[in-house]
């Protein structure tokens, strides 16, 4: 007969044998739940990371938009400053024909009904007007030898070219001044003709040709009454061509060589604009 102790041991072993798979199954389910929770947590972390990346991308796009807007505003401010400088120069150019000692008109008030005047007191280096018909590119004529000219014919040819310039017929004026210089290379009005030839190209934004004309005037007629204006316009042309260092040097030469003159004042104004452009 089996003892009570042996029976208990056998019963324990049977229960343990039955309970072990159930315990193992329960532990397996717990592990699965833990794994699923970990996966869910990892998935939520990925979603949060994606949301953060999207938010950062949105911020970057906003900053890029603001940067473009600021660049546009800066360009507008630069253009406004240039327009003001050109407008001021244009207003001052209308005062060119003012006789010594005459009263200075109010700012912007034209003289001689707004017509450009040619005098022997040296020219202003400002642009005359914004052209509607550009002068065709051409080389400034050389200075060949020529027989003595009739002063009356020379003056008539010059006046005809200057009248075209005053009327805003810049292309026609340039051709006429070129013709004058070809026919009267050593004429009394040749320095003025070189100056206004350069001016006719300057207002039509043909800056390299304009620069050549002004340089020829300075090289051939350094003591001309147009020399100060021509030197200033050399600086202006260099400025428009974005030759910053050359423009700065030339404008400072104007101030040093012609202190207290209108050209020196205009050079100072253009130097201020130059500093803004180079920022």
Write up this protein:
The chain has 279 residues and is mostly helical. It has a domain at 110-277: Serine Threonine Protein Phosphatase 5, Tetratricopeptide repeat (Alpha Horseshoe), CATH 1.25.40.10. Helices cover 68% and strands 0% of the residues. The chain is built from eight helices and no strands. The radius of gyration is 42 Å and the shape is rod-shaped. The N and C termini lie far apart (112 Å).
The CATH architecture of the domain at 110-277 can be named as Alpha Horseshoe
User: In CATH, what is the class of the domain at 110-277?
Assistant: Mainly Alpha
Average pLDDT, to the nearest integer? 73
What is the fold-level CATH name, i.e. the topology of the domain at 110-277? Serine Threonine Protein Phosphatase 5, Tetratricopeptide repeat
Strand pairing plus helix content: what structural class?
A: mainly alpha
Discrete helix count: 8
SSE pattern, N- to C-terminal: HHHHHHHH
Number of strands: 0
Name the CATH superfamily assignment of the domain at 110-277: Tetratricopeptide repeat domain
Question: Largest beta sheet, briefly?
Answer: none
- Poorly predicted parts: 90-115, 119-133
The quaternary state of the protein chains shown equals single chain
Residue share in helix: 55-70%
Strand content: under 5%
- Coarse morphology: rod-shaped
Q: What distance separates the N and C termini? A: 112 Å
The Cα radius of gyration reads: 42 Å
